[in-house]
Amino acid sequence: MTYEGVARRLATVRDQIARSQRVGGWTHDVTIVAVTKGHGPEAVQAAAAAGLTVVGENRVQEAIAKQDHVGPTAVEWHLIGSLQRNKARLAVGRFALIHSVDRAELVAELAKRVAPGSPQPVLVEVNCSEETQKGGVTVAGARALIDGVRAQPALAFRGLMTMAAFSDDERVQRSSFGLLRRLKEQLESEGIAVPELSMGMSGDYPVAVEEGATMVRLGTILFGERQP
Fold it and tell me: Which of the four CATH numbers 3.30.70.100, 3.90.226.10, 3.40.50.450, 3.20.20.10 does domain 6-222 have?
């Protein structure tokens, strides 16, 4: 598979992000996480060539294989998929940010694996759509998990992540994204810094940006359909 169209598609995405920010009344920067799940290392190289600086992977071992293949590039790596406890030792130190911390057991396992003096940045994943097939702590349980992360010197709490329900209805999408934004606002009103809101994918990122996303996770819209 070739990726000659990435730069053109990226320009279209950036234009849409700018429009959505104007609608939402936001002026902060929005980081595009280029999701290369199911694509070869060539997609990572194409992303970097197009000017993207962050690459997201769903699976630890797939990410490590690509990191080793690509070698030093001008990108940082994020883990955006569900993380099993037995993969925590592989993930720590390999990713600039882990988006999918969703339970106390994982918090403890990650903290145990971190080298002294090098805290692992993480986001807490919240299940704002309340769909049982999705990962993420419940909205009701989010504060306790956030407090648990913040109590670990080995971890650095950087914000929140969610996925909207799989729906083309913007009202459904906005419900999930607005809920995460309000959780951020509540935490910040209590003095807890929440720098990042990772929300929005190829099918719903315009609404996520309108609702205040600081990171959007985009794969198909940049790279086309994944390889079988």
Answer: 3.20.20.10
